[in-house]
Amino acid sequence: MNTKAINSAAGVINAALTQNRTASGIALALDAAGLLMTPETAAELASLRARFAVSDHSADEDPIAFALTDKAEDDVRPQVRRLRALLAGQREQTGGA
Asked: CA-CA distance, 76 to 72, in Å (whole number)?
């Protein structure tokens, strides 16, 4: 049970009820607050959370640097510097920011 989400939904429902909203009006208020999702979206979210949970690297690592290394514990700073230099060079060539 996600207490924070339930409390958020309860607050939106309570506000809608005090405005004498219909069931559809309450549903619209929940959707406007971003508290509704389709079954497909819920399934996709669950899948992404499961994939992230078994990921073999932490979320605070640079994902590009991680992809360029064989092991997460390797020092990725040299690869990151090279990649950033390459990107900077490409930006200069294209006149980008």
From this structure: 8
Q: State the average pLDDT over residues 67-87.
A: 74
Residue pair 86/65 in contact (Cβ under 8 Å)? The answer is no
Nearest to 77 by CA among 93, 62, 92: 62
Q: What is the widest separation between alpha-carbon atoms in the chain? A: 62
State the pLDDT at residue 55: 67
54 contact partners, CB below 8 Å, separation of at least 6: none
Instruction: Find out whether 76 and 60 touch, Cβ atoms under 8 Å.
Output: no
Q: What is the pTM of this model?
A: 0.42
Number of neighbouring beta carbons within 10 Å of residue 63: 10
Sign (positive or negative) of CA dihedral 52, 54, 58, 63: negative
